[in-house]
Amino acid sequence: MRKEQFDILVALEKDRLALDAQALAGLTGMDTECVAAIVAELTAQGLVAENAITEQGVAALEHYKTKRAGFIAACFGSR
């Protein structure tokens, strides 16, 4: 998963609301046209449907959240 795709999924998951490309662009700092193209990719992958994150999208994020939590814990343990 590319960083841009990840950022959009995180933005959609935060409140579990359907957001259009303009709203996602504001949340992610990306260009609206870029966001629209990435949402189309995520829709084709089944991670987004009707501008909202799907259960499959949430499951895809869970993998990354576990990795981030482990990394953060390792950083605190080294101090």
Structure description:
- This protein has helices at about 5-15, 20-30, 30-45, 55-75; strands spanning about 50, 50-55.
- By secondary structure, the chain is mostly helical.
- The protein has a two-stranded antiparallel sheet.
- It is globular.
- The model has no long low-confidence stretch (mean pLDDT about 85).
Q: Which tags fit this structure?
A:
79 residues, mainly alpha, 4 helices, 72% helix, globular
Which helices and strands, and how do they pair?
Blueprint lengths: L2 H13 L5 H8 L3 H13 L3 E2 L2 E2 L1 H23 L2
Antiparallel strand pairs: 1-2
Summarize the structure.
By secondary structure, the protein is mostly helical. It contains four helices and two strands. α2 (21-28) crosses α3 (32-44).
pLDDT average, as an integer? Answer: 87
Radius of gyration, taken over Cα atoms and rounded to an integer in Å: 14 Å
Q: Reading side by side through the largest sheet, how are the strands ordered?
A: 1-2
Q: What are the low-pLDDT stretches, counting only 5+ consecutive residues below 50?
A: none
Main pleated sheet: 2 strands, antiparallel
Strand content: 5-15%
Oligomer: single chain
Helical content, roughly? Answer: over 70%
Structural class: mainly alpha
Provide the succession of SSEs. Answer: HHHEEH
Task: Give the tally of β-strands.
Answer: 2
